[in-house]
Each structure stands twice: as C-alpha cells, then as structure tokens.
Design goal:
α2 runs parallel beside α3, α5 packs across α11 and α6 runs antiparallel to α7. The chain is of the alpha/beta class. β17, α10 and β18 form a beta-alpha-beta unit. The longest helix has 19 residues. 30% of the residues lie in helices and 29% in strands. It folds into three domains: 121 residues, 3-Layer(aba) Sandwich (Udp-n-acetylmuramoylalanyl-d-glutamate--2,6- Diaminopimelate Ligase, Chain: A, domain 1); 110 residues, NIF3 (NGG1p interacting factor 3)-like (Udp-n-acetylmuramoylalanyl-d-glutamate--2,6- Diaminopimelate Ligase, Chain: A, domain 1, 3-Layer(aba) Sandwich); 100 residues, Alpha-Beta Plaits (2-Layer Sandwich), CATH 3.30.70.120.
C-alpha cells in the first residue's frame, strides 16, 4: 500500500495546482489524504460506468481529468446520477482527485503530450500568463528565521502544506546561518534566552517558494511548528518568468503540410473516430497552435502568434467563423480524443514513480459522441 499523501504530492509535482485556471476545481475533491492505496485508476471523466469500474477493481484513488462537484452542491444523496455515483465511491472508500487545467498546461502535460505526438519543435505557451494573472498562478517567497532545533520540523511542515515545489522538484529550500537579536518585554515568554535583556541567538534564514493560493496554509503550518512565541518571517511576491507558463502550446512541424494531410496525422496519432476541419484542404500548415479540450476561445491568440492552424478538441460555430475570417485553419478531433491520451500518459507517469502501485487508465469509459 502506498500512502495517499505520497501519490497526491507526486500529482502536484506533475501538475502544479497553481497552473490551474482561476475558475477550476482541482486537487483532492473527495477522500482522506491520510489513507493508503494499492490501485489507482485514471479517467477523463467520472461517469457511472468508470465509477463502477473503480469500485469493482478496488481502486483506492481515481484521478479524473474533469472535476466532480464542479458546481456548488447543497446535498449529496443517491437520488440523482451524480449523487449515486459519488455515494458508491464514498462507500467503497475511493478517493477522487482532479488535475484538470493544471495537467493541460503543465510541462509534460496534455498540450505538451499532443505537441510531442505530432512532432512539433520550438514549442512555447500559446497564451503566456501575463502580469495581473489570477492569484492562483502567482508565487511568493517566504523567508523565516529559525533556531537550529526547529529547522527540520519547520521545513517538513512547510513542505507538507504545499511550499518548496519548483517544476518537477519538491522539498526545495535555501538556508543561510546568521545571528538574530531580541529584547523581550515583561509580558513576553521567549522560547530561548530571557526577557528583559537583549539576547543574541544563532538562527537559520530558511527560504522556500510558495504558491500564493497556499500561502495561508504554509504560514499557518510554519507558526504551528515554530517554537518562538512570535516567529520572524518575510513574504516576498514574485513575478513569473516571462513566457514560461501559459495556456496551450505553439510549435512548428518539420515541414509545411496540406491541411487535409495534417488532419489525417492527427486522426491517426490521437486514435480519433473522425476529425473536422475549417479551411481549404490544400492549405499549407506548419506553425501549429494546440489547446486540448475546448479551445475555440483561443482563436485570436493563435492568430496573434501567427499560427497556420489551431488544433483543439472542439470549437463553437462562431469561433469557427472567426478562424475562417482570419485565415486560420482548425483541426477538431473531438474533446475526448484530444485529452484521452493525456490521461493514459498520466497513468504511465504515476506507475513510473510508484512501481509497486497498480495504475491503469479506465477501460470502460468511451467517447459518448459516435
């Protein structure tokens, strides 16, 4: 059995939750992080069929790309399809986690997976996060001053609360030794030294990065672990590296290809039942924008990035007209086909990290569109 907390930490390394859209519902959505699991199932969407599979196969965790409980829920009862499904999972002790838009846009996530399958090179975000992006995308640095005896305990507490993740690395920190001073009033109760005197104490300056969305939890964990009555710490807001993170990908095919031929490559590589296109069949495409799922809203971003074609699962009729008016081709393999491969890749990556953990992509889910 593998501690669920270890699996969740790995998922957050693969798909940092701060990359998720502000409107999204990501992370552990149901279950006990203190539990353990021997079997994990990934799926694109939790349906009655995939939920029954998870229960029948005794999964301890389901990683569903599309979140459950996406809208506020006032009651959870087996009187409707979603309630019956979730009630069955809860009774069987199956936890549910969703990475959704964090996995879409993470390094090595679904959009990168699609770019790699299609042989794109020189890839970068299609719509980079800009200054003023939602707080969920922002990071800060916490510097806390710690006596030697507290160091390991405080580091562990801050890491467990979500600090110290840089890309594919976790438990990242920096520390520097120095000397701190204080003068405690008569009402103080210092953990070291005496009140009423100026004391000098050997301390560490411990620095960790923290997603802004986890700031309160990390500071709270630090305060709880710290032996000082009044811990000294600083919080520094950080600006993102320009162009490093963002929605979608844009890259280049090795050579210009007719749209109809590129659409056939997409159909074959994504195992799509059919592919719809917007644009002339013989139109040459080489610069390719990618947004998995439903990405019609990024037509103008693709145009601004001088893409020849936007590959996305589905697009609204008026987004198709906007693409056509701007000379941008579209390739639409369907929402399911554009994301199912990324779900299978996530299962592979989890098993790679935990060889003793049985991980599989759902065998019973399928594209509802025929």
């Amino acid at each position: 059995m593998t501690p669920l907390s270890d699996i969740l930490a790995c998922l957050q390394q693969l798909a940092p939750l701060e990359l998720a859209a502000e409107w999204d519902n990501v992370g552990l959505l149901m279950g006990d992080p203190a539990a353990s699991a021997a079997r994990v199932m990934t799926c694109l969407t939790l349906t009655p069929e995939s939920a029954a599979e998870a229960v029948d196969q005794q999964a301890g965790l389901v990683v569903t790309h599309h979140p459950i409980l996406f809208r506020p829920t006032k009651r959870l009862a087996a009187t409707n399809p979603e309630g019956r499904m979730l009630w069955a999972l809860a009774r069987a002790g199956v936890a549910v986690y969703s990475p959704h838009t964090a996995w879409d846009n993470a390094p090595g996530g679904i959009n990168d997976y699609l770019a790699q399958r299609l042989g794109l090179t020189q890839c970068s975000p299609l719509a980079p996060h800009r200054d003023g992006a939602p707080a969920a995308h922002n990071k800060c640095k916490i510097a806390v001053f710690v006596p030697d005896n507290d160091l390991e305990r405080i580091m562990d507490a801050m890491f467990s609360a979500g600090a110290g993740v840089i890309g594919q690395y976790s438990e990242c920190s920096y520390r520097l030794s120095g000397t701190g001073t204080f003068f405690g009033s008569d009402a103080s109760n210092p953990a070291v030294g005496r009140k009423g005197l100026r004391e000098e104490v050997s301390e560490w300056r411990l620095e960790v990065l923290c997603p802004e969305a986890r700031l309160a939890a990390v500071v709270g964990a630090m305060r709880t672990a710290h032996s000082y009555e009044e811990p000294a710490f600083d919080i520094y807001p950080l600006r993102s590296e320009p162009g490093k993170n963002g929605v979608g990908r844009i890259g280049t095919l090795p050579q210009a290809t007719p749209l109809e031929e590129f659409a056939q490559v997409v159909k074959r590589q994504l195992n799509a039942a059919c592919v719809q296109t917007v644009g002339a069949a013989k139109q040459a495409v080489q610069r390719v924008a990618i947004v998995c799922g439903s990405g019609g809203e990024f037509v103008q971003d693709a145009v601004a990035q001088k893409a020849d074609v936007l590959l996305t699962g589905e697009a609204r009729f008026h987004d198709c007209l906007a693409a056509q008016a701007n000379g941008l081709a579209l390739v639409l393999p369907g929402h399911y086909a554009s994301e199912r491969g990324g779900v299978e890749e996530l299962a592979r990556r989890l098993h790679e990290r935990f060889p003793n953990l049985e991980v599989w992509p759902s065998k019973d889910e399928h594209d509802p569109i025929r």
